[in-house]
Design goal:
about 240 residues, alpha/beta, about 20% strand, disordered N terminus, disordered C terminus
Length: about 240
């Protein structure tokens, strides 16, 4: 059984409460302002975890061209497949310049929201992320540096794995990250266009893909990139494959 109670407030009691309302509103406003300021400070200090290895980390971005394959996500007869890559490598401390988290964020912003399904606030926040890697830093030259090919998950730009790649590079690995056009959220191409995620191959195994999509799949591109790199890495700047 639910009982009901009625609370009667006398006119005098109500009068005594009224002066406190402005104070309550002021407290709420002050609290909101403090939370907003803390949030803005947090946004301004977005920093990837510091690498744990003994080397500095260099980074550069390039676009490689597979002259034996056309872009399967475009109409027949389209240009050869362009493959943007991000390379992280062990470097001398203090060399190079600060590196943006996403170099071409201004170009791919809209596609990240549309195809990558990121909110505008998150995409805006990406511009504030700071990295440990340095652009065009002087590489550590060593025979037989171990090489890793980093192929991201579906609809995910390889730069979102930067913390992992930077830590591996600080341990002495050369990490070649592949931004598969039309299979990551969004990536800019040399002609100024943006390749947004194409869901045509989403959810299919390698065996289920049509021959056309299979030729442009992540697995095929990863094998091509690996076979196109020098067998022995004497420099942390792998040559640009065009075969």
């Amino acid at each position: 059984m639910i009982s009901h109670a009625t609370i009667h407030v006398s006119r005098a009691s109500a009068f005594r409460f009224r002066p406190r309302l402005p104070r309550l509103r002021t407290s709420v406003i002050v609290l909101f302002g403090a939370l907003l300021a803390a949030s803005l400070v947090g946004w301004a200090r977005l920093q990837l975890p510091e690498p744990t290895g003994s080397y500095g980390v260099g980074r550069y971005r390039a676009v490689w061209t597979d002259v034996n394959r056309s872009e399967t996500h475009l109409p027949s007869g389209a240009a050869n497949r362009s493959v943007p890559v991000e390379v992280w490598y062990p470097a001398e401390e203090g060399t190079g310049t600060s590196s943006a988290y996403i170099d071409d964020l201004g170009l791919i912003r809209e596609q990240l929201i549309d195809k990558g399904e990121l909110s505008p606030a998150v995409v805006w926040g990406l511009s504030l992320v700071r990295t440990a890697s340095r652009a065009e830093a002087k590489p550590i030259l060593s025979d037989g540096l171990p090489l890793l090919i980093l192929s991201p998950g579906n609809q995910t730009n390889v730069v979102f794995y930067s913390a992992l790649a930077e830590d591996l590079a600080s341990q002495g690995y050369v990490v070649v990250g592949i931004d598969h056009p039309y299979q990551v959220a969004a990536v800019s191409l040399p002609d100024g266009s943006v390749a947004g995620y194409d869901s045509a191959s989403d959810g299919f195994s390698e065996e289920e893909l049509s021959p056309k999509l299979k030729r442009g799949s992540r697995t095929s591109t990863s094998f091509w990139a690996r076979s196109s790199l020098p067998q022995a890495t004497h420099s942390s700047r792998p040559s640009t494959p065009t075969r």
